[in-house]
Fold this protein.
Amino acid sequence: MLEKYIKAARREVKAELVLKNASYVDVFTGEIRKGDIAVVGEKIVGTGEYEGEKEIDCAGLTVVPGYIDGHVHIESSQLSPEEFASLIVPRGTTTIIADPHEITNVCGMAGCEYIAKASVNVPLDVKIQLPSCVPATPFETSGAILSGKDIEKNITNSYIFGLGEFMNYPGVLLCDKDVIQKLEAAHSAGKVIDGHAPAVYGHELNAYLCGGITTDHECVEKEEIEEKISKGMYVHIRHGSSTQNLGNAKYITPANMRRFILCTDDRHAADLKEKGHLDDALRKIVAGGLDPVTAVTCATLNAAECYGLKFRGGIAPFWLADLVAVDNLENFKAKYVIKNGKLVAENGKPLFDTSKRYLPANVLNTVHVKDLKPEDFILNVNSDKAKAMTIEPGGVVTGCEIVDIEKANGDVVVKGTDLLKLAVVERHKMTGNIGKALFKGYGLKGGAMGITIAHDSHNIILMGDDNAAMATAANKLKEIGGGMVLVNSKTGEVHSLTLDIGGLMSSRDAESLQRDSRALIEKAHAMGVKREYEAFMSLAFLSLAVIPRLKIVDKGLFDVEKFAFTDIEA
Amino acid sequence: MLEKYIKAARREVKAELVLKNASYVDVFTGEIRKGDIAVVGEKIVGTGEYEGEKEIDCAGLTVVPGYIDGHVHIESSQLSPEEFASLIVPRGTTTIIADPHEITNVCGMAGCEYIAKASVNVPLDVKIQLPSCVPATPFETSGAILSGKDIEKNITNSYIFGLGEFMNYPGVLLCDKDVIQKLEAAHSAGKVIDGHAPAVYGHELNAYLCGGITTDHECVEKEEIEEKISKGMYVHIRHGSSTQNLGNAKYITPANMRRFILCTDDRHAADLKEKGHLDDALRKIVAGGLDPVTAVTCATLNAAECYGLKFRGGIAPFWLADLVAVDNLENFKAKYVIKNGKLVAENGKPLFDTSKRYLPANVLNTVHVKDLKPEDFILNVNSDKAKAMTIEPGGVVTGCEIVDIEKANGDVVVKGTDLLKLAVVERHKMTGNIGKALFKGYGLKGGAMGITIAHDSHNIILMGDDNAAMATAANKLKEIGGGMVLVNSKTGEVHSLTLDIGGLMSSRDAESLQRDSRALIEKAHAMGVKREYEAFMSLAFLSLAVIPRLKIVDKGLFDVEKFAFTDIEA
């Protein structure tokens, strides 16, 4: 192949594809340059003056390297990898570091393998990080457990790129044997380890890093960012749907710039469709004042360097021909997207077919519960004051508020108050576990809602003011094999949306799924769910026992700061 | 091991070694920070406040990461790897990317293996680049040939780090089959390829880079540097004895900074001893106006990134504990050098023993020539004007001057002129080849000098104004098994210095070798060699047929620009 590149570079033969008359971002020197970009096979072979078998006129456009998403859970889009690609590739993303943490928590290695195999037929490089924390905590029941031994066995798989975000930072600090085995296995295999260590500082951060961990996407404070970078970490600028820290971009200096990369972590299909992916992050951080070439460099070369992806993330001979021609470095509207040297999207539309989607049996039918009854949701509290969960809008950090409660028939009365019942019903092993809590201020009235996405073990999480509606909701989720449900006590109506892949994602096309999803969300708001919350998705994070402060899992109420269960009684 | 790091990082146990009260360079943010640096095993485990089993007070000193020499031929020091380490480690260099191109040209893979094995017992990481161009050109006779097939076979050796400087750029441009095989083999093995492409621009540079080549240490012009960096290359700032381009540092900008690294390429023992190694380069580029933290970053993190050396080149938890405590960032005088967590040099003196040096039989006795006679050096020129080589002082670029010649007895008369005879006597295969030329302006009078270092095939190169003295010189070199020689026609004195390892390096200690070497060089100057030349070493580059313009090899006079032999007749 080298011969073909060299001959075309020297113009002895025409290049296969030439982006003519381009302005392009040179991430190596920070300049914007002019010239044709010649491509042969999957490589750029030269910049300068070239003729091609096929030519695309890029006059008036600016070409940038394809974007690299440094950390993403595809599952959060509720789409199959194929449909996910159909939304993000036309936006300019050509490589993602994907951590299939969610589906692996439900389906084990079958989930991981599913994401890998479903990604092969789309023009998107999906680098699979082996989820490191399955389950995320030992305090909940997940569909699978990946022990140290399992990590050791699987980390060397050829389709595994690295070790996914190491959320169990207490386990690292305490030298948990299983944790150490996982980290050592990744190092032995020479693989990169992603981090996740919100608000870990000083000697504890040193200790965490001694696990050989490279990145963090959780930090938001200037001091935390500065300390993490100064200790050798790469820091992600995150543009998720619920979790965002685009503000991190304001801490970029010329001296620390190369340690910032971009990611989306968790981003919904609706946002991908309507607002965009990394293109939207770029648009926003540039609007926020960051030099556009610096922004592009973070989204491309920096990420490639962080993850050891050689000859990727720049426009230069022998570098991967992942290219995006955008209108300008303000809008970042992608006119053409080239992946591995082929035009794969134009004017925001994919030029590849995603209608044939890989769908193995072992990621389907994953909701295993006995039939639920209204009395399963009785909440027995032995005091007049109880802990109620709250959530800070726009984030996943929860609070704890002490509330006065009324009781009747051994149950807490929530109707007519701003309290709601929250329940996590275990759905993998049929343990019958139901964790219960109170939530204040979500707004839902006269029914129940539920979803089989409940980070990170993805049991059924339900919220409601009516035990019967909550039981109906759970039973409906079982019936449809996972998804979202909304039950109206007054009308008896039950609305649902099926997420057949692990109860997390749909095998349907992005467009129809999104339309139905939006309709269901609107119905939830119509039942009172405040618009400052993301209806179902904010619910899905109330069980995430690695993010402060109070969380609910199938085994009970959990105090993240104490890393222990806690009583509901205040 | 991770457990030990983590526990020490958290201060549950004392660190093994702590650099107390340090100021240190944070290459990630460009800041100078304060704190203790804690070390366990070969790793830094933390910065902050620490206690250690052993503590070194670094108050008043500044700690920087150990320097990385991005490209060096150890052979140019004329020292064994052990003795080389004894000079450079105390200066602060802890990792070198070593290309044993010279000894491999003489001894084949045995030379390469020798450098690798001799380096194991010194506290210096020697990353061995498999020499890519043995011989450098097909126009000369070398001791070994590494074909594409040989490269394919050897590149996957565990002791081989990458593929050495690809000097045969015409071969790349012309898609020479053997060249392509070498490049493809390196890519298949996932190994980095160093470049060497002086004054290659535009489409030709694109083509060269399509070989997948990463670095260049030859460029000196602003435009060339800018183009090479903009095309994804790393550019070396070179501090050799003969070849220098420290001036490249003035083209560093905040935006392109990360693509600059430091190297020494070819540096003599005397310079290493008296002036230093990368410490001297740092001193000089900082004196020249470069921000010292930027300079340090080029010498450390940038080089580590260029060569994919993870967790190296920065002061951070889990990063390799290669540390240098210097007096300040102006003098860069190394007070303490830590390699892999151990104190290995103090106050410029090595704390490791290099008296036991590895010396295998297959790198000794490498001068294979028949006895030479005075008539072997008769130079028969069929014209009155001839091409005479010249050399630009301070470099290795030669010129061609047309000179009038006198003849007598079928030989050119050089005595009483400013011309000298130059001869390259093949010494590997006993072919009897002698290439002859004229040189103008070296200054030597009344005798001959010679050396078995003659880049890159390392035949015997001789210069003189007396055929008999030239024959004596060659025979002496044979007798001593390689080295340098000076013959005084008037007194009959023959002075020599033995370089027993491949005729290139000495198995002796650095100090006594250097003393004797200096004495011999002085004798050469006493015989008229101009002080603007480096006596023997300038001679050694007159056969380097990859550097413009006119060169002499065992097969004859070579025009580098035409890449073909040329007649001496003008």
